[in-house]
Amino acid sequence: MEYEAVIGLETHVQLKTLSKMWCGCANEFGASPNSNVCPVCLGFPGVLPVANEQALRLTVLTGLLLNCSIPSRAKFDRKNYFYPDSAKNYQVTQYDQPSTREGWIDFESGGRLETVRITRAHLEEDVGKNVHFERCSGVDFNRAGVPLLEIVSEPEICSADMACDYLNALTDILVRGGISDCDMEKGMVRCDVNVSVRPKGSKALGAKIEIKNMNTFSGVRRALDYEIPRQIAAVQRGERLAQETRRWDDIGGITESMRSKEDAHDYRYFPEPDLMPFEPSDSWLAQVRAQVVELPLARKRRFMEQFQLPPSDAQALTDDDAAGNYFQRIVAGHRSPKTIANWVINNLKGKLAESGFSFGELQFPEVGIPQLVDLVEAGKISTTMAQEVFLEMFRTGELPGGIVERRGLSQVSDAGAIEALCRQVIEANPKSADDFRAGRGAALNFLKGQVMKLSKGKANPGVVGDVLERLLNG
Ligand code: ADP
Ligand code: MG
Ligand code: ZN
Fold first, then answer.
1. Which residue of 58, 103, 169, 175 could cross-link 107, Cys pair, CB 3.0 to 4.6 Å?
2. Which residues are found with C-beta within 5 Å of the ion, ligand 3?
3. Contact 270, 95 (CB under 8 A)
4. How many domains are contained in the chain?
């Protein structure tokens, strides 16, 4: 029998706020251990949490970006457990009334458009970090109380590739929306991978195996590449898989059992008594709604439709947000968007990278590239000259029209002037002229090259070709 994998992801991302979720301590990576702490995030008795409004805003904004509904009332709950990384012995989270629910993400995977539904995205707090030394362990509480968003997907992902594409799409959206920097190296994104297998075509779900706390996407891929065949082999041997939690051993490249359902935690959730339920007003919601940005995939598709860009160009202008914004501003009303896109992607981005400047620091005004394209299309300068003009424009900030005029670069399209040059070249190269008349077409290219040289590159190559043919055939 053939089996298929079913995967659901619980992704945790740190929100991009200045301060922590319930106190004024900095939300900052890399500070010396236990320097960003206070009685609130250290869980001293008698302290009271005050919700970080920006974190609430970013949570609701995430919900909007992920097509979720925003309930009119959300509340916070305590998830109780005893572990050194939490000085309070509970984590504040949203249990049965989360801030957002029932959305979806569209993303591209394996050349297809996929949709995965989002069960919910709720707000909680991060916990401290245990650090192990040779003879003892320590806890760094700088991370304790950092706002954390948990985004839960429906079990609708069916391969390791699709899981990675989902995660990349999700983090792209969150970065684009200013929700989180999603810097994996700083531990800003972690996920729990839930995976089961079932006979292909079956609707029922198999027993869920949860692989905890993955902190790289390549780890997610490798863990699934190990776990899916392991489960399939087990059921094919006739084993009955039971729900369990497993750990990914990154060095060994295997998952190993941590605990079964029988010894699952009982978190004794109950409403957080120190916090009011959150009931956003219409005007507050409207403010958040105004922050909604166009998602990467939507932008890519729009660039393809509106400007007839090929997928690769649209993708390049989506991956680089600043380039996409710049393109969008300068292309407005121009009849050759594809050519404008080429200049941005192939020329401008390279020069910017080389010089270390950003789009905001460009010397030349935004009409520069459209004007350059116009000059080429009107036959005033050749594409080769355009490259030169572009470099000068980039360096000096002068507009192409001015550069062309000042340096006398204007391409010669005047058939009369070109004809004189052509006659000169034919006279000087009688052998090639005869070759052409004898049917050897390549000779024309040689003659054309000579005319271009004679004109110092200023002749319009199309016109040169036409005039040469007319003279030679005449
Ligand atoms: P829990 O209450 O144990 O956290 P949930 O039902 O809320 O479990 O699901 C947690 C995550 O596991 C979700 O992302 C969900 O899509 C995924 N999931 C649930 N059941 C399965 C299953 N049988 N196979 C794979 N993933 C699953
Ligand atoms: Mg879970
Ligand atoms: Zn604090």
1. 169
2. 23, 25, 38, 40-41
3. no
4. 2
What is the 192 CA–ligand 2 centroid distance (Å)?
Answer: 7
Flag whether 404 is in a domain: no
Does residue 410 register a pLDDT over 80? no
Same domain, 280 and 425: no
Q: Does one domain contain both 155 and 18?
A: yes
- Under the banding of pLDDT at 50, 70 and 90, the label for residue 458 is confident
CA–CA distances in Å: residue 81 to residues 92, 143, 155, 161: 11, 18, 27, 34
**231 C-beta closer than 6 A to ligand 1:** no
CATH number, residue 440: 1.10.10.410
pLDDT in tens, 115-164: 999 999 999 999 999 999 999 999 999 999 999 999 999 999 999 999 99
Q: Are the C-beta atoms of residues 473 and 461 closer than 8 Å to each other?
A: no
CB of 154 closer than 6 A to ligand 1?
yes
Buried b (16+ CB within 10 A) or exposed e, 56-95: bbbbbbbbbbbbbebbeebbbbbbbeeeebbbbebbbbbb
Of 360 and 154, the one with more pLDDT: 154
Please give the single-letter amino acid code of residue 331: V
Q: 194 alpha carbon to ligand 1 midpoint, in Å?
A: 6
In a domain, 410, yes or no: no
Residue 385 pLDDT > 90: no
Tell me the CA–centroid distance for residue 145 and ligand 2, in Å: 20
List the domain range (segments joined by +) for residue 460.
415-473
177 lines ligand 1 (CB under 6 A): no
Instruction: Report pLDDT for 463.
Output: 82
Tell me, using a 6 A CB cutoff, whether residue 122 lines ligand 1.
no
- Final residue before a domain boundary, out of 269, 289, 309: 289
| Closest CA to ligand 1's atom 14 | 8
Q: Which atom of ligand 1 is nearest to the CA of 154?
A: 16
Same domain, 221 and 77: yes
The percentage of the chain sitting over the pLDDT mark of 70, rounded to a whole number, equals 98
Domain-embedded: residue 361 = no
Output the pTM of the full model: 0.81
Give the residue from 112, 122, 59 showing the smallest Cα distance to 91. 122
In the reported structure, the alpha carbon of residue 137 is separated from the centroid of ligand 2 by a whole-number distance in angstroms of: 27
Residue 413 clears pLDDT 70, i.e. is over it: no
Residue 320 forms part of a structural domain: no
Asked whether residue 123 falls in the same domain as residue 259, the answer is: yes
Predicted confidence at residue 99, as pLDDT, reads 96
For residue 167 and ligand 1, the question of a CB distance below 6 A is answered with no
Q: How do strand 129-132 and strand 112-125 relate by DSSP bridges?
A: unpaired
